[in-house]
Amino acid sequence: MATKIDAYQCTECGWTTNRWVGRCGECQTWGSVAERGAPKLRSVSVSAPTERAVPIAQVDVHEADRRLTGIGELDRVLGGGLVPGAVVLLAGEPGVGKSTLLLEVASRWARGGQTTLYVTGEESAAQVRLRAGRTRALADQLYLAAETDLGTLLGHVEQVDPSLLVVDSVQTIGTADADGSPGGVSQVREVTAALVRVAKRRGMAVVIVGHVTKEGSIAGPRLLEHLVDVVLAFEGDRHSGFRMVRATKNRFGPSDEVGCFEMGDAGIVEVPDPSGLFTSQASEPIPGTCVTVTMEGTRPMLAEVQALVAAVPNETPPRRVTHGVDGSRVAMILAVLQRKAHFPLSRRDVYVSTVGGARIGDPAADLAMAIAVASATVDANYHKRVIALGEVGLAGDLRRVPGLERRVGEAARLGFELAVVPANNRDPHSRLPDMHGLKVVEVATIAEAIGALGLSRAGRSDPDAR
């Protein structure tokens, strides 16, 4: 006997319920729950399996050997290359370079002697051919098709028999077997499920391009991210050529790695050593600047923080302007500088920014921001190339940061002379060794860090600073 259970479904995330509600219980979206089609059955008929289950030790592990894409930064994010039968979802904002990157991947895959099929639903074949000529992505084993029908796409797969399939994008592919128009929740779910099935059956790697919403999340049902094996986020500022590919889900490797690229006139190129992109090229330290080392996955990356402090008239409220850093975090650091290090900042405009469009969310950059503001306040610089690492507490103390040895090692490799880091509170007799000409100074408070750099010459005329 058929009964209706979970007869209502959210069109945004796929959450189901047995009664109508005005707000989705999963994604909290209003007005997205609608009645869905046929009722479910209480029982399911038993069918004979096509393949017999085998002990796990007898499964041929070599069938899942990784294959390099030819782009080292992408292979790094994937965990060492593409696994046959894996389905990868690459999502990013319009114009960030998703199609350019995947066309380069398809070209290098084909140059390695493996057949590649690139299916575009957003452009014509001639338009993709023009881009391939501009970026030098032409290859004999690279096949191109412009299709928006899922059945025709699968027909191309049967004819070409590729080892890599690129679909650009999943929101443009539709099928008559699902309700709605291409890009809708039902269509995206059915198209992705079909691609996953054919990928597993043929042992073919599939890379799908996905759109994002205005909030930055992947468009379509949340089920889309569960269906695929790997989810990659392609990030970048359209006013800057720097791009980052970040893994948010990876069934075959780490999910915290990032790959660095740079977009230019000739296409997209990988950046194996991106530390120099976010630091200025000044030969001597400049007042109001400080360099820190952030961690992107397991990769240490240098970032420079710049600060400007200017006095304001008494009748004008001071301004706090930030770019590339969290404004609330900067406000907290300014309060700690004023109360614990006696810097008169209550009647000063403070501007804090990063170099090269970098976005810093690592708490380890707190000390660098504090030193940059202190240096700008007294208009004095330090005579060595300095990096600063440490999370600033409300009591003015410095807390240890993860991966400290790796961060300091990266600074030593790039020729820095002095590293100001938090003291090792767990073992007062344990100290980081100096390395490659880099002297390591361990301090316990923000006042000690400023004093170690000779920046504690701020006046105390401001009563609020006491």
Rg over C-alpha atoms, rounded to the nearest angstrom = 27 Å
Mean pLDDT: 86
Q: Which outline best applies?
A: elongated
Number of strands: 23
Lateral arrangement of strands in the main beta sheet: 8-7-9-10-6-11-12-13-14
Tell me which CATH architecture of the largest domain applies here: 3-Layer(aba) Sandwich
Let me know the largest β-sheet. Answer: 9 strands, mixed
Q: Which percent bin holds the helix content? A: 10-25%
How far from one another are the termini? 78 Å
Q: Extract low-pLDDT stretches.
A: 425-430, 458-466
- Strand content of the residues, in percent? 15-25%
Tell me about this structure.
By secondary structure, the chain is α/β, with parallel strands linked by helices. It has three domains: 1-41; 65-272, Rossmann fold (3-Layer(aba) Sandwich); 277-465, 2-Layer Sandwich (Ribosomal Protein S5, domain 2). It is built from ten helices and 23 strands. The chain has helices at 72-78, 98-111, 125-134, 150-160, 185-202, 223-227, 327-340, 366-378, 404-413, 446-452; strands spanning 2-3, 8-10, 16-17, 33-35, 40-41, 87-92, 116-120, 142-146, 164-168, 205-210, 230-236, 242-250, 258-264, 267-270, 289-296, 299-311, 320-323, 348-354, 386-388, 391-392, 398-399, 418-422, 439-443. The strands form six sheets. The protein has a nine-stranded mixed β-sheet, with helices on both faces. Helix 7 crosses helix 8 (366-378). The N and C termini lie far apart (78 Å). Mean pLDDT is 86; it is low at 425-430 and 458-466. It comes from Brooklawnia cerclae.
